[in-house]
Write a structure and sequence with these properties.
The structure holds two protein chains of two kinds.
Chain A: E1 9-13, E2 17-21, H1 28-44, E3 49-54, E4 58-63, H2 70-82, E5 98-106, H3 114-121, H4 125-134, E6 137-142, E7 149-152, E8 167-170, E9 174-178, E10 181-184, E11 189-191, E12 194-199, E13 219-224, H5 227-235, E14 245-248
Parallel strand pairs in A: 5-13
Antiparallel strand pairs in A: 1-2, 2-4, 3-4, 5-12, 5-14, 6-7, 6-13, 7-10, 8-11, 9-10, 9-12
Helix pairs in contact in A: 3-4
Chain B: E1 2-10, E2 14-17, H1 37-47, E3 55-59, E4 63-67, E5 71-77, E6 80-84, E7 87-89, E8 93-97, E9 103-108, E10 113-118, E11 148-152, E12 162-163, E13 173-178, H2 188-195, E14 199-206, E15 209-213, E16 229-230, E17 235-238, E18 244-247, E19 254-255, E20 259-263, H3 268-273, E21 279-284, H4 287-293, H5 300-305, E22 309-310
Parallel strand pairs in B: 13-21
Antiparallel strand pairs in B: 1-4, 1-11, 2-3, 3-10, 4-9, 5-8, 5-10, 6-7, 6-9, 12-22, 13-20, 14-15, 14-21, 15-18, 16-19, 17-18, 17-20
The chains are: A alpha+beta, B mainly beta.
């Protein structure tokens, strides 16, 4: 994992947005910087800001071009970046506010590429599974689809590349791995990541008042369930009771 | 009180659309809304509405429709063959429809997305402040025959039918772009080759994005393993094999593929409306040029309104001309 954490850079995106990039490559400090900087921008109440979005290693700031412009916005963001004397390369994630435990089945029909992923990591499958389920992952970003989390970072050995060819479709709730991260798919989707597991978790529940289950910074741990048991859970009328639970940390 | 619009027949991809759901990128929900936003602004201008109304977006093919109350409708976006009880209707225009009349809309003659907007708007319940169907995330579905949608009553049913001249944005052509956060991941030679290439809009495309084919070498970036980053409608993303896709309104919010640039807002409707097999090429603008070409959506209806003209029906468009009382009210000449 290259830690190319030099000075953050600003990039225009379309007519009404600026990307503040802390690193081009996945990097824990850059992710922390993105989360901290997003909160800093929020607190600064800059006139004309419409939307602030922290992502894996960058922050998007969308503005209203009627109320402000790219030059003013760039200057305001530059000021906030330079206000931090110690720079942006040394940050660690703040402690989580919530902890999720999500039951998941791994391997077999619920994760056909588990063995392949383990081989990429260089571990026997059972050992790789232990690493996956012992890991206390953090929601590093929400994106791609509604509520869909990028979870990480796994140990260094899990820095495995995306596949060159796409897997045509994994189901909603699928767990896929690449570049030290796990994605829990919100919808059926094609993916270049390796499919290792399956949950009954729904990150996006438009019928509920809190439509988006996970928040950036949440901690997530997967609780292994035997594939036979998971089959039974899915077949029961009570699958909804096995989606996972959330504990608020104080 | 609400009226209804009945869908008597439907093409494969008719959805309710408005301006979508801005402000939810942090939750992974892209804005969505009409693929050709300008078409909804044009509909509002034609109907004399001060606000954009929810209408039907018809991809490629229309359907058959009737209304429970008298209403004006606007037909905008990709021109489609339209008839009211068998009489042809002009596109880019508003018309009166009476209960019992059947509005038939056939395939697009140019472009992709046609819009049918009733003067009271479609009034289905809002989800996250919008009525827009977002197919990619499962918010709403394509409509099928037999469906009935609530619509608002026409606030001014006696207003004249009108027409709005529009520029052709339905046939591909030159699309303008600006550099984006990842343009520098491509070599200057690759960027130059991209700008010098002519593309064919592939048949692979939907509201998430459209694929562009060309005969030359693929456009690879000089990087791999980079962090996924935020993406926006208009971004031109290169897949793993270096094939460009223009991202549209239902694109994902993040992506790992490198992006060579961003289509300017003013040309996004043109990109979305480019039909399969049409030719597309790109021209690079500076940020200042792009900003000068960008008109804010606030005030857009009022500006369009200045170009709206009364619709004059041509005699050859009137199938039942002989039934009209063309001379009623004329004096006989021998009155006292």
């Amino acid at each position: 994992m290259s830690s190319n954490n030099t000075k953050p850079t600003l990039h225009p995106l379309g007519p009404d947005a600026i990307i503040v990039r802390f690193s081009l490559m996945p990097d824990p400090a850059a992710n922390a910087a993105a989360q901290v900087f997003a909160r800093l921008v929020e607190g600064a109440n800059i006139a004309g800001v419409d939307e602030i979005v922290p992502s894996l290693a960058s922050v998007l700031v969308r503005f209203d071009p009627v109320k402000t412009n790219r030059i003013e916005m760039t200057a305001a963001l530059d000021d906030l970046l330079s206000a931090r004397d110690t720079g942006w390369a040394d940050l660690a994630l703040p402690p989580p506010l919530r902890r999720w435990t999500i039951p998941a089945a791994f391997g077999d029909e619920f994760g056909p590429q588990m063995d392949e992923a383990a081989a990429c990591v260089g571990l026997p499958s059972p050992k790789a599974l232990t690493e996956l389920t012992n890991a206390r992952l953090r929601v590093l970003a929400i994106g791609f689809a509604p509520g869909q989390p990028y979870l990480g970072l796994l140990p260094d050995a899990w820095n495995i590349p995306r596949q060159s060819a796409l897997t045509p479709q994994v189901p909603a709730g699928a767990l896929v791995v690449a570049v030290r991260q796990v994605v829990l798919f919100a919808n059926p989707s094609a993916t270049g990541w390796r499919w290792v597991g399956q949950t009954a978790f729904r990150p996006f529940r438009p019928e509920q008042t809190d439509a988006f289950a996970l928040r950036i910074g949440d901690e997530v741990q997967f609780e292994p369930v035997a594939t036979s048991e998971f089959r039974a859970i899915l077949a029961s009328d009570n699958a909804g009771a096995h989606v996972g639970h959330c504990k608020v940390l104080t | 009180m609400n009226a209804h619009m009945n869908i008597l027949g439907a093409g494969p991809a008719i959805t309710v659309q408005d301006l979508g759901r801005p402000g939810h990128i942090a939750t992974g929900l892209s804005r969505g809304g009409a693929a050709d936003r300008l078409a909804l602004f044009e509909a509002a201008a034609l109907l004399g509405s001060t606000q954009v109304l929810a209408g039907l977006e018809m991809a490629g093919m229309g359907g058959k429709f009737s209304f429970s109350s008298p209403t004006r409708i606007a037909l905008t976006g990709a021109p489609m063959q339209a008839q009211l009880d068998g009489s042809p209707l002009r596109w880019h225009a508003s018309h009166w429809v009476q209960p019992g009349q059947v509005l038939s809309i056939a395939s697009a003659q140019k472009g992709v997305y046609g819009y049918l907007t009733p003067a009271g708007g479609i009034t289905t319940p809002k989800v996250l402040q919008s009525r827009a169907t977002h197919l990619a995330v499962g918010l709403g579905d394509a409509l099928t025959a037999g469906a009935s949608l609530p619509v608002g009553l026409d606030p001014d049913p006696s207003a004249p039918a009108s027409v709005l001249p529009v520029q052709d944005r339905f046939s591909g052509g030159v699309i303008r772009l600006i550099q984006g956060p990842q343009t520098d991941l491509f070599t200057p030679d690759t960027l130059a080759a991209f700008l010098g290439s002519s593309f064919i809009r592939s048949h692979i495309g939907n509201r998430q994005g459209i694929r562009l084919d060309h005969d030359g070498a693929p456009f690879g970036a000089e990087i791999s393993g980079q962090a996924s980053d935020l993406i926006m409608p208009g971004d031109i993303q290169m897949t793993g094999d270096g094939v460009p896709y223009i991202l549209l309104c239902e694109c994902q919010t993040t992506g790992g593929y490198p992006r060579i640039g961003t289509v300017i807002d003013a040309d996004l409707a043109k990109a979305a409306q480019t039909p399969a097999s049409a030719q597309v090429s790109f021209s690079l603008l500076t940020l200042n040029e792009a900003d000068a070409a960008t008109k804010p959506e606030a005030g857009l209806i009022q500006n369009l309104r200045k170009s709206v003209q009364p619709l004059v029906r041509q005699p050859h468009d009137i199938s039942d001309l002989l039934a009209y009382q063309l001379i009623s009210g004329v004096i006989a000449g021998d009155e006292e």
